[in-house]
């Protein structure tokens, strides 16, 4: 039995880092992951009731999907949900590049359908969105969403799908204490008004908001994220110290509080998980109720850090 019309989870599980090559310092995150280690992550997630896994063809150019499909295959397909993406910038030249990329993803994931299929970037909303309709009708895609789209593009995609009796069922953008462009641009309000779940990726800013990294202990040298974040760690210290202090009150960690902040804002965080203990943090984050004062102070400290963490692949919202 498949999960249809899935209830939006409190937190989704991200596998961007699973696309790294496996050599430390080589890849976006510089993570050295093993098959056994990721099996433990999946076991812990399954036991804790986290079921939605988010990946994309371009995460390691297929490596993330392949590894994810491999470690999930011991579970019945109805026990988990898969979310993957069509990336226009990587489109092939066939008659239907969206269907082609989906077929490749299905093969790597070892499944006949995905629960949630996204258009990853809005290269041409008018061109790519209609391709989702046939995939929905075929049953190979249960639900569709758009990622990295601005408000005008989300509305356009919704209109195109609406003409065929479908709709945008999820929006996924970069959203964190340090990067609130989707909130400022009215996207969160639009999603709330339309009843569209808003998924937030990079809630922890690739580890920079976990409190784990500092000038003395920077992010892994040679990784892309080290280039982005190591130069701003000193400016983030007042914020990460506050996250840590609030966490201490709740028997939790700084990262758990940053995730709880996003949940309190009405978002479903997609959090990268590479170790079993990360699952424990997600469980804690779901139990933390932040006060209005905590929320306001965290946002003020984030604003005070005055950093721009917009990814190279993102445009202004």
From TrEMBL:
Keyword Oxidoreductase found:
yes
Alphabetically ordered keywords of this record: Oxidoreductase
Keyword Oxidoreductase: yes or no? yes
What superkingdom heads the lineage? Bacteria
Family annotation (SUPFAM superfamilies): NAD(P)-linked oxidoreductase
Which terms in the GO cellular component ontology are assigned?
cytosol
Q: What region holds the NADP-dependent oxidoreductase domain?
A: 11-302
List, in alphabetical order, the Gene Ontology terms for molecular function in this entry. oxidoreductase activity
Which Pfam families does its entry note?
A: Aldo_ket_red
* Name listed for the protein in its UniProt record: Aldo/keto reductase
**Source lineage:** Bacteria, Pseudomonadati, Pseudomonadota, Betaproteobacteria, Burkholderiales
């Amino acid at each position: 039995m498949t999960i249809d019309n899935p209830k939006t989870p409190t937190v989704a599980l991200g596998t961007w880092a699973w696309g790294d090559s496996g050599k430390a310092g080589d890849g976006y995150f510089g993570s050295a992951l093993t098959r056994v280690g990721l099996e433990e992550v999946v076991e812990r997630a399954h036991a804790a009731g986290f079921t939605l896994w988010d990946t994309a063809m371009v995460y390691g150019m297929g490596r993330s999907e392949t590894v994810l499909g491999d470690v999930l295959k011991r579970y019945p397909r109805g026990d988990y949900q898969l979310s993957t993406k069509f990336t226009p910038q990587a489109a092939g030249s066939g008659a239907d590049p969206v269907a082609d990329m989906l077929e490749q993803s299905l093969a790597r994931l070892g499944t006949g359908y995905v629960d949630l299929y996204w258009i990853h970037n809005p290269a041409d909303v008018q061109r790519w969105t209609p391709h989702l309709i046939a995939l929905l009708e075929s049953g190979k895609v249960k639900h569709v969403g758009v990622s990295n789209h601005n408000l005008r593009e989300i509305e356009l995609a919704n209109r195109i799908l609406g003409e065929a009796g479908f709709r945008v069922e999820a929006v996924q953008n970069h959203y964190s204490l340090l990067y609130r462009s989707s909130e400022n641009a009215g996207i969160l309000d639009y999603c709330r008004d339309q009843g569209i779940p808003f998924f937030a990726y990079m809630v922890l800013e690739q580890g920079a908001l976990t409190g784990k990294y500092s000038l003395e202990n920077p992010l892994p040298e040679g990784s892309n994220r080290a280039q982005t974040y190591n130069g701003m760690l000193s400016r983030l210290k007042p914020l990460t110290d506050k996250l840590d202090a609030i966490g201490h009150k709740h028997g939790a960690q700084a990262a758990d509080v940053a995730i709880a902040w996003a949940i309190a804002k009405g978002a479903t965080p997609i959090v990268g998980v590479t170790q079993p203990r990360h699952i424990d943090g997600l469980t804690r984050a779901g139990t933390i109720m932040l006060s209005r004062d905590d929320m306001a102070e965290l946002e003020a400290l984030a604003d005070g850090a005055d950093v721009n963490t917009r990814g190279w692949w993102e445009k202004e919202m």
